[in-house]
Amino acid sequence: MFHLDVKKFKKYDRPGPRYTSYPTAPQFTEEYNSSKFLDEVLRTNYGDNLSDLSLYFHLPYCDTLCYFCGCNMIITRNRDRVNEYVDYVKKEIDLLRSYINPERKVVQLHWGGGTPTHLNPSEINELASYITESFPFDSASENGCEIDPRGLTREHLEALRNNGFNRISMGVQDFNEKVQKATNRLQSEEITRQTVQWVRELGFDSINLDLIYGLPFQSVKTFEESVDKIIDISPDRIAVFNYAHVPWMKKHMALIHPEDLPPAEEKLEILKMTIEKLTSAGYDFLGMDHFAKPNDELSIALKEKKLHRNFQGYSTRAGADLYGFGITAISQLEKVYAQSVRTEKEYYSAIDKGEIPTHKGYQLNDDDILRRYVIMKIMCDFELNMKEVGDKFGINFKEYFKFGLDNLNEMIEDELVSIDNDLISISEMGRLLIRNIAINFDGYIERKEDTARYSRTV
Fold it and tell me: What confidence tier does 75 reach under pLDDT thresholds 50, 70, 90?
């Protein structure tokens, strides 16, 4: 069973990136436009040994506002508005498909939001069938969708399953009614269990449930009750996210009163209890905030050093080019990131002009590519061979990363990290603080070029 040393852990509480990319999104610039992204799309779609494809579709609509939500979402119950958006996503598919080599296969598909199941079953079928008809899919592709059990029907799930979706992710956050009322997210245990039953009856390969700690009125005792219920439900994967109270970024979070949030000490005890209970129940701790059963693909990928990280979090599909569709969606090709425009009006205008709706992005330089490799190895493998990296990139690792290595000394003393000859290894407790470890190899932070406000790491 994993044991968390709270006293040692709490001193590392500081703001830091989540490293779903490197460089991180604050480095994206509007100078990187649709024309530059198109050049990269064309460059990466010709030649030999083309990468597989990963497709992300951002479906931003929700019918109610969850006060803790950090996603790019739109609250609406206007079905015409939703239908118009789906029509334009199909137009964007047509636009990008004309540039993508038809021999490239999709190995990963993900619908996120917002709430993708805000679409009704016929709308799900319309969009999903259009996607599968537009791109060739690998027979073993991982096709996931985020769902909201509130207002969900079995027909929603049937539409997803009939169109090849095989993974489901669902938010629970907390079963406690007082917490749910304070966050405007009323979701009964009965609804959650019914949805999980439908998912299993329909033959989906995997289900993930999300919890959030640090919400109003939570305590170790009340959250333990939610964790026990989650263990009883027995999903394949569990994500336990740290609530980031960032009202300067998400104005609706001001609806959560800071005085109702659990104090830092209580929050850490909640985390400690959660980790110890989940690992005692047989879940593997993957790192940061993810848990999976030992036979799950993520657990196997971790053991085989094949874990990958992108804008959707941890994944098993390394090396695929990610194309994002819809407002705010982010694409990640070999050497670039490109994020789409933020509003429906801008999105529709760009598509009507036949333009890829890029708002901003980033072209990686050689230092970025090196540091991305190092940070992603640390985030995904939880170890790094300095000699192998030095040989791969033609550098003296210990000289190039002297700043980062010097900063690891305290973490080595606290047994978060160990260095044996050329191997940097991350301990189990270090995995929880992996953002703090990775930050030491971030060139923008080393050069004091990153002034963004991030959520806290603990």
Answer: very high
